[in-house]
Amino acid sequence: MSARPTHDLSIKTGEYTDRQSGEQKARWLRIGSVFRHDDGATSIKLDCLPLGLPDWNGWVNVFPREERRDEAPTRNAAPPRSVPRSAHPEPAWSDDVPF
Length: 99
Hints:
Strand order of the largest sheet: 3-2-1-4
Number of helices: 0
Order of helices and strands: EEEE
Structural class: mainly beta
Strand content: 35-45%
């Protein structure tokens, strides 16, 4: 039995101001995928657990999956959109280890 990813699981980790438009936008982290099996069953695969994020309120958002370059194209699929690197600011890492 095969399964294919249909949706992405994402959490909102904060907001930022877009440099070009000046709009407030959400910053998202993809934490997993939803899969649809041939028999109609649905599964969820988590790639990470969003623990330790002070602003995370427990909600996980489900978005239709955008086609990836390494996946076979689907019929009538829209071309993947690219997001400029500047839209994803680098995180501020700390060298403090909590253990």
